[in-house]
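Team,

Forwarding the record for the chain on the shared tracking sheet. I've put the sequence and predicted structure together so nobody has to dig through attachments.
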Amino acid sequence: MEAQALIPKAPAQRSFSPSFHCEKARTGSERLICSSKVLSVADVKLAQAYKSAANVSTDKSTLKSEQNAWRKNERDACSDIECMLAAYQNRLMQLAS
């Protein structure tokens, strides 16, 4: 066996990135987001929308609780791209209203 065969290859560089570091992805949902350009883009858009909402919110604690509940009950309940993209779109609409 050649020595090079024992050296693991470096992962391919992605040309996209979500709002978090994929190297620290722990959950299946986070790994799914890291594997999909469309979900990564949606994640960045949501992070920006959340930040904007937090900047104008008079109740940041409730906003944070709602975001955590959305992540747990909607986003993380998805196991495929279509479901998760719909969850992101719904949350973006909620934050825009």
